[in-house]
């Protein structure tokens, strides 16, 4: 086991984020452009975005506010964002900032257009002031600032052409066996600082979502129904309720930060909170909970390498796959039962479409967590979906590659279709 490699992977893929990453990334790119051109009033802002970003940033609330929209995200970032904070760029934003941003939009030019390339995650901001013109580009990762330009002079260029690799050719520099060894042999005092912070942040926003009325209140509704369930049903409903409550709060603009996973806050919540809920209900000690949360998040990162950072399919079910493994670990299951949980998840909710970030994401999170709990219970009982079924292969890696083929194969067509529906709906309004 290369322990340092795993620690580096957690540091890269488990990142603190404030608000939904799609509008926040737009704010980050705009704030970065303003940092390049700090002098003079801003005259115009142009955002050139991939379809996936437009789709996911259109409806979700911007953190600390009750508003949404690509233009608003760009303007708030340019006027008030701190680019040094990256995905926490909008920390401290409030309603008074929104009113100033609205005034800017009424008096200045702000345009959004769809970029014509094959990159699923692409954000470009062109910001003009009375004195300068700055251009910033993010590619493939929500905080991956790869290009900067000021007055047509290149400041830096770290971009390489992003293409969709053939899934059969993907070689993930991590294995379930390595993860398992790290989880069981890692030093709880020194190697699990990121999972510990993950537990703190993500549980806080989920408790907030349970205690207050956010969005569709999926979590609060599920909590109220858990009182009539048997023991297994109670554990499942509690895990669903607590996890969905975090998505309720986050999608509704809660100003609380979360620990994201593979570029998504909802994935971070979904990979973490079911494990916390089950550990609480089972009365397990803190160390076991921390190790299980680390396992869940690492399995999520591992599976996402095949699935892709951006997809037309919902990433919550991949994060729930990790959570299912974490629950199996809490229940005493070994590595083979963890693999069974992955197979069971792959045969269940794979194929759920992503139609953008919004309040309804809490429903998709709740569905994914229910599937995670079912998959874990089956795995613990020695039941695994057979390799003759659908996309399931004998080897877990081959199953994940099949999920990756589905993800990459459908993304362009489905994203185009969903965006066309969203635009047409806005035109009819």
Largest sheet: 6 strands, mixed
Can you tell me the residue ranges where pLDDT is under 50 for at least 5 consecutive residues? none
Strand content: 5-15%
Rg, alpha carbons:
21 Å
Main structural class: alpha+beta
State the CATH topology of the largest domain.
2-methylcitrate dehydratase PrpD
Q: If classified by CATH, what would the architecture of the largest domain be?
A: Orthogonal Bundle
Oligomer: single chain
Number of strands: 8
Number of helices: 15
Order of helices and strands: HEHEHHHEEEEEHHHHEHHHHHH
Distance between the termini: 56 Å
> Strand order across the biggest sheet?
3-2-4-5-6-7
Q: So what's the CATH class of the largest domain?
A: Mainly Alpha
Looking at CATH, the homologous superfamily of the largest domain is 2-methylcitrate dehydratase PrpD
Question: How would you sum up this structure, described in words?
Answer:
By secondary structure, this protein is of the alpha+beta class. The protein folds into 2 domains: 16-157, D-3-phosphoglycerate dehydrogenase, domain 3 (60s Ribosomal Protein L30, Chain: A, 2-Layer Sandwich), CATH 3.30.1330.90; 167-425, 2-methylcitrate dehydratase PrpD (Orthogonal Bundle). It has helices spanning 3-13, 21-36, 51-57, 70-80, 95-107, 176-185, 193-211, 218-225, 231-251, 265-282, 286-307, 316-330, 335-346, 361-380, 396-428; strands at 16-18, 42-49, 109-114, 122-129, 133-139, 145-150, 153-157, 257-259. It has a 6-stranded mixed β-sheet. A hairpin with a 5-residue loop joins strand 5 and strand 6 (145-150). The radius of gyration is 21 Å and the shape is globular. The chain starts with a helix and ends with a helix.
């Amino acid at each position: 086991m290369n322990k340092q490699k795993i620690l580096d992977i957690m540091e890269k893929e488990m990142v603190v984020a404030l608000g939904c990453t799609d509008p926040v990334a737009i704010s980050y790119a705009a704030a970065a452009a303003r940092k390049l051109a700090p002098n003079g009033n801003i005259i115009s802002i142009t955002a050139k975005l991939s379809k996936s970003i437009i789709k996911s940033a259109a409806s979700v609330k911007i953190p600390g506010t009750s508003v949404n929209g690509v233009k608003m995200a760009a303007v708030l970032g340019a006027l008030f964002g701190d680019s040094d904070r990256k995905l926490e760029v909008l920390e401290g934003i409030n309603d008074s900032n929104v009113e100033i941003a609205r005034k800017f939009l009424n008096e200045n030019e702000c345009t959004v257009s769809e970029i014509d390339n094959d990159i699923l995650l692409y954000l470009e901001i062109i910001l003009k002031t009375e004195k300068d013109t700055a251009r910033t580009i993010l590619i493939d990762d929500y905080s991956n600032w790869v290009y900067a330009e000021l007055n047509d002079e290149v400041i830096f260029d770290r971009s390489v052409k992003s293409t969709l690799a053939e899934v059969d050719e993907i070689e993930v520099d991590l294995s379930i066996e390595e993860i398992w060894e790290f989880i069981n042999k890692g030093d709880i005092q020194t190697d699990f600082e990121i999972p510990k912070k993950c537990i703190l942040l993500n549980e806080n926003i989920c408790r907030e979502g349970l205690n207050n009325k956010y969005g569709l209140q999926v979590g609060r509704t599920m909590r109220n129904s858990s009182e009539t369930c048997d023991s297994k049903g109670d554990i499942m409903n509690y895990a669903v309720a607590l996890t969905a409550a975090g998505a309720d709060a986050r999608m509704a603009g809660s100003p609380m930060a979360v620990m994201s996973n593979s570029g998504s806050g909802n994935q971070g919540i979904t990979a973490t909170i079911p494990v916390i809920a089950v550990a609480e209900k089972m009365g397990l000690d803190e160390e076991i909970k921390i190790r299980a949360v680390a396992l869940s998040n690492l399995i999520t990162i591992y599976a996402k390498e095949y699935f892709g950072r951006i997809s037309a399919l919902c990433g919550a079910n991949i994060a729930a796959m990790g959570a299912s493994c974490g629950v199996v670990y809490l229940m005493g299951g070994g590595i083979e039962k963890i693999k069974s949980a992955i197979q069971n998840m792959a045969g269940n909710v794979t194929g759920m479409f992503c139609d953008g970030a919004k309040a309804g994401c809490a429903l998709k999170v709740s569905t994914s967590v229910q599937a995670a709990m079912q998959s874990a219970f089956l795995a613990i009982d020695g039941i695994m979906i057979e390799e003759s079924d659908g996309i399931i292969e004998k080897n877990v890696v081959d199953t994940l590659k099949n999920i990756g083929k589905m993800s990459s194969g459908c993304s362009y067509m489905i994203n185009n279709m969903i965006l066309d529906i969203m635009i047409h709906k806005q035109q009819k309004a």
